[in-house]
Amino acid sequence: MKKKSILNLIKYYSEENDAGFRSEAYEIAKDFDKSGDYQLAEYIMALMSNANTFVPQMNESDSALFEKIESSGDSLWLPDSVTQDILGIVHAVAHKAGINKFLFQGSPGTGKTEAVKQLSRILNRDIYMVDFAAVIDSKLGQTQKNISSLFKEINNFVHPENVIILFDEIDAIALDRTNTNDLREMGRATSSMLKGMDYMDERVVLVATTNLYEHFDKALIRRFDSVIDFNRYTKGDLMSIAEEFLNKFLVKFKLASKDIRLFRKIIGLMEPIPYPGDLKNLIRTAVAFSDPDDGMDYFRRLYYAVNGKQPQNLKELKSQKFTIREIEILSRIPRSTVARELKESMDE
C-alpha cells in the first residue's frame, strides 16, 4: 500500500469526508486485488459495504431528513428541447462522467418534479426527497448543522449508485444571501450547502427544483453541472398536451363524445394557456364533474372554467369564433334559434 493512500485516509477521516475516505479505501482494495492479496481486498470491500465503516452507512429508514417517494410510470409531456435535456442527463449519468448535480428551474406546473420521477424510472434509482421543514431551524446556527448532517447522510447511502436526492423547491435555503433578512445566518447555511455539494459522492444524482431562479444564489448555481429551463413550452406544445389530457380523462371517465376543434377553441380562449400542471387540473375537473348522461356537458364546464361565466351570450360566443353548431352545443339553444337570434342582432 502506498504512503500516499495512508495519508489520504487520515486526511479524509479528519475532514469527515466520507466520500473521499470510501473512494480511497476502494482504491486500496483494488491495489491489493491486483497484487494477488485477494482475501485482504475482499475484507476491505466487505467492511465498506456494511455498517462497520468509521461512519455508519445510511438506509432509507435511518433519517428524518429524507422521505422516499415513488417514481412515475405516467406519461410526461414536455417540450422537445426539455426532453432532449432530460435524455442528456441520462446519458451523462450512465457514463459516470462526474456530472451528477442538476437544477430544474421553471414556473409552477411546468413538470419539474414529475420529470425527476420519470428520471428515477429511467435510471432505475430510488428518489429521496429532502424534508426542508426538518432542515431549517429557528435556533442560531442549527440550520447550518442540519445541512452538514444532511450531506453526511447523503454520502453514507449503502448504494449511492441507486439514489437520486431531490431538493424540491430548494428556494427555502438557496435564495440570494444579499436579499435575506438575516444575512449572517443564511450566509452560513448557504456556505454549508456549497461545501456539502463540493464534497458530495459523485455516484449520487442530485436534482434541485426552483421557481425563483432569478433570486437564486449565484455561487450555488455554479455548483450545478447543468441548469434546465422548463419554461420552454410553445402555445402549440400546450395545445397538444391539453388534447392528451382530454383523451386520457375521457377514457378514464368513459365519455365517448369528443370534438377536438371545439375543445381547441375553448382552450385557445386562455391567454396565455396555463402550464401542464394547471391545465391538467382544469380539464380533469371539467370532465370529472360533467353529467355522465350528457356527453357534451364537459365542454360547458370547461368554458365556464376558462371564462368565469356560462356560455349563454350568443353574440359573445359568435365573437369568439364559435360556429352555430358549436354555439348550440355550448348554450344548449337549438341551432335554428341561435341562427335567428344572431341574424336579428346583426339587423339591429
TrEMBL record:
**Which chain regions cross the lipid bilayer?**
none
What keyword terms does UniProt attach to this protein?
ATP-binding, Nucleotide-binding
Under the heading SMART domains, the entry gives:
AAA
Similarity field: Belongs to the AAA ATPase family.
Q: What is this protein called?
A: AAA family ATPase
Q: Which domain of life is it from?
A: Bacteria
CDD domains reported in the protein's UniProt record: RecA-like_protease (cd19481)
Q: Which Pfam families match?
A: AAA
The AAA+ ATPase domain extends over 98-234
Q: Which organism is it from?
A: Blautia hansenii
